[in-house]
Write a structure and sequence with these properties.
Elements (H helix, E strand, L loop, with lengths): L6 H11 L8 E5 L5 E5 L12 E2 L4 E6 L2 E6 L1 H7 L2 E5 L6 E2 L4 E7 L3 E5 L4 E6 L2 H4 L3 H4 L7 E5 L11 H12 L2
Antiparallel strand pairs: 1-2, 3-4, 4-5, 5-11, 6-8, 7-10, 8-9, 10-11
């Protein structure tokens, strides 16, 4: 059942709708505390950048040569809800494919972040320290860290955009 937007909901909806790569319909739900949150009617109705690779833990990597930019998917941020804190590694830290490199805390839960590849952290998005909610407004382009890949062949084990969409559809049962 759809509920009417109030002025605050309309601002959130407008901010979320600016992402051209994500196709969704907004639905406002009311929590028992009376706060409103925006959720997608059909979380599987999303498109993901075709040039990215994806993990089954819902991270993405955009690779340019021997460097990769890492973030979480729109599906992940939607599942988490409002993100309030992000813990990331330091520049120079070594990452191992499939291992935890940080965490994301939302109003719903704390979720570990898993590295899609092995390598060395070359940059960390410091803006997320003071504004972690940026991930909610544009997950497909809000990067968390940049990494120099130690083994580009690891990318072959990751999912394509089409395979990731299929995976999330199966995960949600839609």
């Amino acid at each position: 059942m759809r509920k009417a937007f109030n002025a605050e909901d309309a601002k959130v909806a407008q901010r979320c709708a600016k992402h051209p790569k994500v196709v969704f319909q907004l639905l406002v739900t009311r929590s028992c505390a009376g706060h409103s949150t925006i959720e997608r009617e059909n979380p599987q109705d999303m498109t993901y950048p075709a040039n990215y690779k994806y993990t089954k833990e819902h991270e993405w990597i955009d690779v340019d040569g021997k460097f990769g930019t890492v973030g979480i998917t729109d599906y992940a941020q939607n599942s988490l809800g409002d993100i309030v804190f992000v813990e990331l590694p330091k520049i120079g830290d070594a990452l191992e494919a499939g291992k935890i490199f940080g965490s994301v805390e939302s109003v719903k839960a704390v979720s570990d972040l898993f590295s899609p590849v092995s390598g060395t952290v070359t940059a960390v998005n410091e803006d997320l320290v003071s504004a972690p909610e940026r991930i909610n407004s544009d997950a497909n382009t809000t990067w968390m860290l940049k990494v120099e890949l130690s083994d580009a062949k690891q990318l072959d084990a990751l999912l394509s955009a089409a395979d990731y969409e299929k995976f999330t559809s199966e995960e949600t049962g839609h």
